[in-house]
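Supplementary Note 2. Why include the ligand at all?

Several targets in our set were suspected to adopt different conformations when bound, so apo predictions alone were not considered sufficient. For every target with a known small-molecule partner we therefore ran a joint prediction. The input for flavin mononucleotide is given below.
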Amino acid sequence: MILNLKDLKTVDVQNYLQHAIAPRPICFASTIDTAGNVNLSPFSFFNLFSSHPPIVIFSPARRVRDNSTKHTLQNVLAVPEVVINIVDYDMVQQVSLASCEFPKGVNEFDKAGFTMQGATIVKPPMVKESKIKLECRVNEVKSLGTEAGAGNLVIAEVLVMHIDESILNTDRKIDQTKLHHVARLGGDWYCKVDNTNLFKVEKPHVQIGIGIDALPGSIRNSKILNGNNLGQLGNVCEMPMIDPAFDDDRLKNIIQYYSISPDEMEKELHLYAKQLLDSGKLTAAWQVLLAAV
Ligand SMILES: Cc1cc2nc3c(=O)[nH]c(=O)nc-3n(C[C@H](O)[C@H](O)[C@H](O)COP(=O)(O)O)c2cc1C
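The joint prediction is reproduced in token form.
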């Protein structure tokens, strides 16, 4: 299917894009108006865009339904400060409740059952229950249009971070396994980060990887190795050499058993290499594959 977005209704554009650009982290924004009334609302059009200066951006959009603007937008235009509370699984149902369109002046901390906690340098309160809170100054609000559905980029500079002790490791850094972020996808879908779905991808080397195009043809065109496996193999800085010290019983068995059938041998070696790659053993996988080249 190919979609030309200008032929679609805004509600459908939003639907396709929100299902496609997912998962999105959730900014739970606390703001105030000039009279000091507090507002608390979630926004998943949100991300980190710069570390120096430390800039995050979220976007309260004009309502598709009636083109009205959100209280959060009105507040940051009047009082350019925001506390961004990071949303984790323990809070997700209350966060969703806070997104109801309560009338202006209603404090969603009360409606959604969160505790207000004073920030140190900005006026809006923090959500005590959130495990990470960012005190921010709003540097700029960039409107993306005047039609219903148009976003408004709230460009915010993070001044102070509050991090709950319970999610720190011994180096005083955030332990990714201890914070169960939730993120928004399309429609009513959310996802949760936890030990069952976290995985690591080794960063590309400072030296440049050889690339998949530099792999020997028999590896590159393997019917067994998939794109992820080739990505791992192409990430080495130089083509590995056979290591005579590599001693592996299964490799020896394959070479011995399939010596009369090179095609079968290659298949078995690729199956074994795939197993090794899928369990992160890149060096051993290379040694197994070199036996087939
Ligand atoms: C998880 C979640 C994410 C949301 N993300 C956005 C968003 O990025 N932009 C937006 O305009 N509305 C978003 N909404 C809807 C707003 O939270 C909702 O319109 C809210 O009532 C706005 O409140 P306010 O008028 O008090 O600022 C989201 C709702 C939920 C539950």
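The pocket of flavin mononucleotide is lined by residues 26, 39, 41-45, 59-61, 70-72, 96, 99, 101, 184 (CB under 6 Å). The CA atoms of residues 83 and 293 lie 58 Å apart. Comparable summaries for the other entries are listed in the accompanying table.
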